[in-house]
User: Fold this.
Amino acid sequence: MELTAAEKEANLWSGGQRPLNASYGKLMMWFFIVSDALTFSGFLVSYGFSRFKNIDSWPIADEVFTHFPFLHGVDAPMYYVALMTFILIFSSVTMVLAVDAGHHMNKSKVTFYMLLTIIGGAVFVGSQAWEWKNFIKGEYGALETKGGQILQFVNAEDGKRVAIADFAVSIPTERSAHKASNGIWYETEGSLPSYSLAEVVKGFEGNNNLVIRSEKLDEFGHKIVLSREDSLDKIENAVEVVEGANLVHNEYGNRLFADFFFFITGFHGFHVFSGVVINMIIFFNVIVGTYEKRGHYEMVEKVGLYWHFVDLVWVFVFTFFYLV
Amino acid sequence: MAEGAHKLAIFRGLLKFKSNVQKIWGVLIFLSIVTTIEVVLGIIKPQILMNYFLSMKLLNWIFIILTLVKAYYIAWDFMHVRDERGSLKGAIVLPLIILIPYLIFILVLEADYIFDVMSSGFVSWNF
Assistant:
């Protein structure tokens, strides 16, 4: 007798088979991915929160990430991060090819594609590190006001950015280091910026071509450049020289931008790194024939799910940090 | 999963592939095209797309829609969601498409409110 649809459904969920047609391991990987996706969306939405809160003064990503390897001084926004995106998508493709070869029990092909995937992932993490290095080092330098606003410098004639190193004058001062032997309390000192505030201000005052570019955006999304008089007024408020970016100061603009950049790309980079490590473990298991003996390559499929998820997250990070 | 278990058509059956490997390369080409469009738009920033729609630039809406398209093809074809049962598809996708838009809605609305308070309030926050 034919089973009715209702009876089939009852049998499906009454035990002894896989109702979702996926193994336990794959299901658990999917549940992990769903929860991790919610974690990342929490991060990205809180980035959106900070951005909408400061919608009239948020840094412009095209002006922050302008480097490309071996092209010094060339303004190349987006190209490098586009390259990174292609690297990660391509390593996703080699992963899915490895999964497909696993379905055909083709050990040598699985090995080859897993190796390519690991290389792609490692290149991506390396690229990420280089991006971080440029971001931390900074390019032009800026002043920070007491309220945490960033003052950048541009040439009044052509509107191009000017580095503080190009106009700061040198004012020799005596600095004596505080030593542990001189006091009961001894605190170590962090690194100092290359120029003191007084040196930058003096250089600015002596150079009539320079004006200040503020954090604020006009209605077309360009940073507002102050007039020379307003600039001389504004520079009185500066309290600190900022070079590069860290968790406390950020020469590119709002410090939250740097915080979220470090946190979200760092968390994603950590996922890529752990993905590479897991891929390596599976890679060696493939080589020694563990899955050949087991009769199926499902482990490759599971780690593949994780790897594609990492790629998926990057697609969103790419959009919200670099494009939008 | 046997080879026959893969659904080999994408774009609602518009494009059918002969094997799973061919489909993978096809999807790669599609994702590359979409990424290239995004990068080109991001570099030239056409003036016509700078108009605002629902308080966001048209260009940004295009970026977000293209991102969702890419996410769909990565999940459906690389992560093989296309080949899974409807119940598993629902278990994966429904929590995300219910919770994430909700989170976006409450936080972005709140951010917009805080922006208004800070820009029209009596206290200067950024000096």
Observations:
- Residues 86-120 of chain B form the longest helix (35 residues).
- Chain B touches chain A through 54 residues (CB under 8 Å).
- Residues 1-83 of chain B form one domain.
- Residues 21 and 63 of chain B are 29 Å apart (CA to CA).
